[in-house]
Amino acid sequence: MNLPSQSVALLQAARDLVKSLPADAVLLLTETSIDWDEVSRMLAGCKLFVAAENPALTKSLRDNPDWTVIDLDPEPLPTQERMNAALLKAVTDEVLQPGAHIVALYNGIASLDDAPEPVDSLSVIHLGEHLERMTSQDLRILGDAAPIDVLRAVVDLATEIGREGREGQPIGTILVVGDTRKVLSLSRFQNFNPFRGYSRAERDVRIRDVREQIKEIAKLDGAILIGRDGIAEAACLHLGTRADGVTMRKGFGSRHMAAAGISKQTAAVAFAVSQSSGSVRVFQRGEEVLHIEPLARPHVWQPFRLETQEPADGETETREGEE
Ligand SMILES: Nc1ncnc2c1ncn2[C@@H]1O[C@H](COP(=O)(O)OP(=O)(O)OP(=O)(O)O)[C@@H](O)[C@H]1O
Question: Which of 3.40.50.1000, 3.30.365.10, 3.40.1700.10, 3.40.50.2000 would CATH assign to domain 136-292?
Answer without folding.
Answer: 3.40.1700.10
